[in-house]
Amino acid sequence: MTSSVAALPTPEGPGSVSGAPHLPAGFTGTFTSRYVDTGGLRQHVVNGGEGPPLLLVHGWPQTWYAWRLLMPALARDFTVIAPDQRGTGLSGKPPGGYDTATLAGDLAALMDALGHQRFAVAGHDTGMWIGYALAADHPGRVARLAVAEAAMPGVSPSPPLFGSTPANDRLWHFAFNRLAQVNEQLVQGREDAYFGFQFAKAANALPGHAVRYYIDALAAGPEALRGSFAAYRALDATIAQNQERKQRRLILPVLAIGAADGIGEGAANTMRLAADDVQSMVIPGCGHYCLEEAPDEMLATLTAFLASYRERT
Length: 313
Description:
By secondary structure, the protein is an alpha/beta fold. Helix content is 41%, strand content 16%.
């Protein structure tokens, strides 16, 4: 590890390992929070474990905490790295840089700073967007890619504006989040209503303390709320980037995970438009937030997919 990483202050407060609620037993004995400065962005990362590096990329509207239930078991076989993305949690929240090329570049720089040239990636929701960009934009660095529960703008066919009511309930936030200013004006002070509706997409209700944790982070200040919308506001750039990326098909192994009460086979159908070697897994009895709704099934699926990566490394 570089001396610049070691010299930074220790992250504190609710967004850090020391302040996060209801962590699995022994979590704080394995994992620590730290800051890493990469190209003008200070990133908060939670890491621990031993073995080949595994980068875990959270989705919207969450933080590294979404992976907490899987991390202790994964750390037995991997060096686990779970950052807060630009604009979220304890990471920096600059006004720009939320297209997936930049977000993926942030994480490539983070892995450089931590001394990991080649690594596996698992991404959920918008973490699927970033994982795909990492694999496409930084060829040779990603050994295996696991993605879950997202359609991908610029790769997936765009859903109709006048879709079914269930589709609208699941997808209307795409258009809303892209708005300039008015969404922040409408949501500020009403974070419970807006983000609570998003978390209600779970087929198996998330624990109240987890929902409260996420919403409190989003309500912490105007920069946090702006950061939560920023990746959606950058979708014009991301769509153009993905249309270019899919001309260079991925050849590394890809695992696409869907939830039976979420996107189902949609994740695999999307990745087959951009990658040659795609395995599919649909988790029964599970909704969109599969990391927290079905952690045992997710762990088994990821462990099996990453076994050859671990053994070869």
